[in-house]
Amino acid sequence: MKDYISKDPWKIIENGFHPEFNKITESLCALGNGKMGLRGNFAESYSGETLQGTYFAGIYYPDKTKVGWWKNGYPEFFAKVLNACNWIGLKVFIGEEELDLHKCNILSFQRVLDMRQGTLQRSCTFTTANGHEISLNTERFCSFHDDEMGALKFNINAKNFSGKIKIESYLDFDIVNEDSNYDEKFWNESKISSAEVIYNEATTKKTNFHLGLALKTRVTHGGKQIKRSSIGQKEKYISEIFEFEYTTDTEVNIQKIIAANSSFYYAQTELESRAIEKCATAFDAGFEELKNSHVNAWSKKWDQSDIQIEGDVSAQQGIRFNIFHLNQTYSGKDDRLNIGPKGFTGEKYGGSTYWDTEAYCLPFYLSTADQEVGRNLLVYRFKHLTKAIENAQKLGFENGAALYPMVTIDGEECHNEWEITFEEIHRNGAIAYAIYNYINYTGDEAYLAEFGLEVLIGISRFWTERVNWSEAKQAYVMLGVTGPNEYENNVNNNWYTNYIAKWCLKYTIECIDKVRQSESNDWQKISTKVAFSEDEPNNWNKIIEKLYFPIDEEKGIFLQQDNFLDKEIIKVADLDPKHLPINQNWSWDRILRSCYIKQADVLQGLYFFEDHFDKETIRKNFDFYEPLTVHESSLSPCVHSVLANYLDKKEKAYEMYLRTSRLDIDDYNNDTEDGLHITSMAGTWISIVEGFGGMRVKDNHLHFAPKLPQNWESLSFTINFRSALIHIKIDQKEIYLENTNLCQ
Ligand code: BGC
To answer: Which pLDDT tens digit goes with each residue over 669-680?
Structure first.
């Protein structure tokens, strides 16, 4: 755990430079607007530890996979969101010496992510190796108002230097992904031009996406504008160069304004002219005007989605940080996009979609954005249904059975580890559950006939073929699976997977009946399209009745899998802490045989289906499983926090809340340098609203059962529920609700 970020309700502040944590701070300070984003890298060259990262939504490359022992059914490619053109880049030469903080003696330093405004600022003073005393102030943003624009301001002042200064402001596509499997570069140069505005366009290999950026730079020295001296150009790289005689202690102000667009949105032939025109117009308006509209857009977003916690600045900073990054990652405007576990903050997980979206992210967007946004997350999967059916076919399933990929960008499976790719099939359940969750929350029943039902039928068909009849047990069983707890593989009858499969079969039957009755024309079309047979629900009912569930009557618990109790059960608290985290200290073999649980598994099911069980059952399972859980997935603490609140375990709920909300700020899992845990951030939101707020939606109504931690004076949040915008304030004694739509 690290503790170098100052506590502040609206800001992430690094006081004093911590080069050893620079990659962590770069992740924390990433900016984005749903369409593009970049890590909090320095604009000027930096030879210390850094991961230069700039990412654009929807632009990916299918990298050839690297696998030790190939298994039939593995996909050959792993689609990755690409590290793309570095647009903040500046090379600054003071005399002959290039500015590089790694080689300087730093006198003062502050890096500030201002979450209210959506800007990243840095101010520092330092002396260079040649003894020049420099002060630097810089600010940047990715426009929230116009998601194709970005801007950087960079001011420098040299106290004891007069002489030549050279500034090279560039657009660089000569970029390699840190996670490139064969060190291959994924971009080809496609077009470079240099008029008033410079332009750099590159094309992805294989997928042939075009991405074009236009840049115009303004440099002033003591308020006087400096003319561009020349253009620098090499492969995939173009720059504007400014050279001038610098007079000591006079401010140099640099402004970079960029416009970016891609063939994901526009015809390739339009890209250059569109970007150049936008950039020129924005340049005339200037940095401050662009910033004003950006800050206003953020202010509206905060009105919809802010959570206020009075009396606990750590908790406040944690939740705002999470909400900030969720809003930066996904705007919900486009149903072809989704939420990668790292968003625009790093390359791990390839920017792809996991079950995280359906299981964790959906509730945040349902409550804080327009209904369309949540719907788009579901439509994304509907659009991939054909590929999910093909994916299941590759594994030997038939009759329209659909297995959604574990990891995907465009519907193709990208994951290559048999115990996950083929066995972690509970993901299908989460996709079905999200349909239920969305309809339960919004009341949008029409979604079923339009898109949802076909997905449910495909998934139900998969479960039907995935179970088999066991003569020995006289029940249907599901063999060879991996549950959400990836620290056990190839187990039989994972309780969670069996439960969600059974629920899904039942829900699909209910939904078919509903659509058949209320939208009979639609049902005709759907049943023809999917070649539905009236026998199918009968078959599903047999499985519903006779699906096997491992339980231990004596302990009163559901067993994570058939043989869970054969394991040696030792609580995490009784392990010598030197073993933790086990994923960094133990062999995989030792982990698999141990009783330790990576993330909620049985408890994930009890969280989803709380209404199906009495409190005592939930308590017994929580008391058995939580002490065995190492929470080594970022997705773990949030679910435990909600359940702990439900069970009145206040201290546990608070401990788990801080762990989920400050996971990245405090670098709990020692991996923030790879990028932030964006999807678990939505879990943090759940732990506040469903946990401390106790919010549930039942029978078309909102319910609240608040339980505030003792040190919180109050908790406030806003919920977009159907036609109401409800502001909720909870203090230690009361709850206040206001439908702000009615008050307008
Ligand atoms: C978790 C998965 C999750 C993935 C991406 C893994 O560590 O175990 O449940 O889908 O990370 O967030």
So the answer is: 889 999 999 999
